[in-house]
Amino acid sequence: MPTATITCPTCRTSLQLSVLPTPYPQPYPQPLSPVYTTPPAPLMQPAPPPASVPLAASTRPPSGTRPPYQSRFGAPHPLPQPPSKPSRIRRLSPQATLLALGVLLLLAAGVTFLAVNWDSLPVPAQAGIIATLAALALAGSVPASRRTLAGTAEALAILGSGLLTVDLYGARALGLIPPIDGFTYSAIVFGSLAVLTLLMTRLAPKVVTYGVTTVIAGQLPLPLILIDRTSLPIILAALLAQVVLTLILTAKGTPIVRRTGAITAAVVLGGILVTGMTRTLVGFIDTYGVNPPTQFLKTVATAAVVCLAAATGIAILRKRPLPTAIPSGLGEAVCAAAAAFAVATTLPTAGRWLTTALATALVITELIVARRTGKLALILHTATITVAVMDIAICLALDDIRQLGYLAVIVAVLSVLAALRKVIDPVAAAAVASLGAQLAIILFTADMYIDRWPAAITLAVVGAAGTSIACRHIGRPLERTLITTATCAAALAEITAILISADTATDVVLTITAAPLVAYGMHPARRPALLIAALFLIIANTTFVLGAGTTTLEWYTVPPAIILLAVGTLAWRNKPSWLFLGPGLLIGLAPSTLIANTDDSWLRVTLVVAAALLILLIGTRLSLQSPFLIGAAALAKIGIWQFLEVAPLIPRWITLATAGAILLTTGATYERRLTQTKQAARWVASLR
């Protein structure tokens, strides 16, 4: 225990203080009565041996000194302990043992008597015996419950209720009751049982069987009375009112009664929803089946009751939630799905577009309130999904391809709206929008709603739109999705065009597809797209010329050459000229140069010479190698060909003289010509 030595500033007396820990705050300690002690000796001197003096003498202060004051702190008070409950051992009392044995012997005697003499008794006596046993069992449960014989009371209550039910049905079977139809008599039986058990709950409130039997038996009379006397909507509405009344009345009972009432109400409410959904589905099948619609108003009334029951169930769940073991929101989702199913199967009877309009309205509402959470959002999600799925299922069941096409268009538009509202990811929205539009076009074409020609053009436009949008999202995840869907649209458009006309429609589709690829390929990281666009344009030009049936070569070569020159100039103008100008110049000039002769057409020769001279001058002026060499080669070919055409007309001596003059001139100026040739070769090699 820690101690401390403190010297009093007045009397110079050393005091020893002890510090004691306390488990909880104590009130300010009060000093005890002062005790006078002899001051201790100085620390440096040895303590004298203790003197054998009485206690009173040792505590008396010396003369002439002031008695020191010493404070003593009281010991900490212990915490109060909770009172311990005495253990109670349940022992079977002699009274309970005697009662149980007596009941057992009486029952054994009664069973033996009935087994031996039952057939010899008249029918009224048999019914009276069973009624007496039921009354004894019911009456015996009252004192048993009051004497804390809970098990005996419950057994007697179950026995009495069962015997009463058997007696009532047996009396009717044996002819003691006037003939009544089965449903009405069952309603009377269960109603009587419910009334009797309700009375017994007043006499024996601790018996659980009476409360549970009252709740369960009280649910049966109403549907048994109405089942063959009125229509289904009225029965369902009456049962719904009974559910509400059951919950209100059982809320004032014991916990087991409240639990039984909740379970019974849930079962009856589920039966209402399932029965109403089945009736609306049967009404829909009856409308579009072999039979004409005959009970449309009853179907509508049933759907209305189902919606009212679902709303009532949701309201009840707000007041009395489901147990924690059941997932939260499951009850609300089931109610919303049932109401949506009933409405979705009822609306097509009045009009095919009503279900689609309802699904669209629900989706728009969900997009507007997308940031809300909780049970309301869950109910809206469930209703939207149910109506949309039912709409698609109905269209598939009826083979309504056109309606499915409209649904695809609506989905595409709503996906764009969802992306603008930032409800879903733009990548998913772009994929759904593009694929939905393509699916709608294909479905409309399959249904012969639109022809193949506009279908191919529309698909190509959809793909071109995707490529155009991708130009603004290069390097982002959205770009890959847009290019993929655009490729899919272009492929579908080309397939459709081939089915129409491989010559006429293909060039239009490829031209529409290639136009945005040029803009897409202008980005430095997407240059290969320009080559794809050029390929599409060349194929389009070729198919167009083939479809036109022309035989002029330039229709096949000049447009592709112009395309390649434009693409090369836009994308690779800083590269060597053979890369961005060579392919176009070769395709455009080489074929015409090879077939140009005066026997065929002087116009072609003239145009080829003019084009070759032009590109030769451009190559010389801009120091470009490919235009210079291609132009020079074309002019050389034309010149040589022209000389070969007139060579047979020239006298032989002129040819020999010309050859000799050339050789003499070359030999006389060989060194200078060789130097000029090397200079010319170096100049050509230095061109870009």
Extract low-pLDDT stretches. Answer: 32-37, 43-48, 50-59
Largest sheet: 2 strands, antiparallel
Q: Order of strands across the widest beta sheet?
A: 1-2
Counting helices, strands and paired strands, the structural category is: mainly alpha
What would you report as the Rg, rounded to the nearest angstrom?
A: 53 Å
Order of helices and strands: EEHHHHHHHHHHHHHHHHHHHHHHHHHH
Query: N- to C-terminal separation?
Result: 102 Å
What overall geometry do the principal axes of the alpha carbons give?
Answer: elongated
Into which percent range does the helicity of residues fall?
over 70%
What value does the average pLDDT take? 76
Which percent range describes the beta-strand content?
A: under 5%
How many E strands?
2
Overview of the structural elements:
This protein is mostly helical. Among the domains are: 121-229, no CATH class; 584-685, no CATH class. The chain is built from 26 helices and 2 strands. The protein has helices at 55-58, 94-117, 123-146, 150-173, 182-203, 208-217, 221-226, 232-250, 255-288, 296-319, 330-350, 352-368, 375-397, 401-420, 426-446, 452-470, 477-500, 504-521, 528-548, 554-571, 577-580, 582-595, 602-622, 625-646, 652-668, 670-686, and strands at residues 3-7, 14-18. Strands 1-2 form a two-stranded antiparallel ribbon. A hairpin with a 6-residue loop joins strand 1 (3-7) and strand 2 (14-18). The longest helix has 34 residues, at 255-288. The model is unreliable at 32-37, 43-48 and 50-59 (pLDDT under 50). Keywords: Membrane, Transmembrane, Transmembrane helix. This is Putative membrane protein DUF2157.
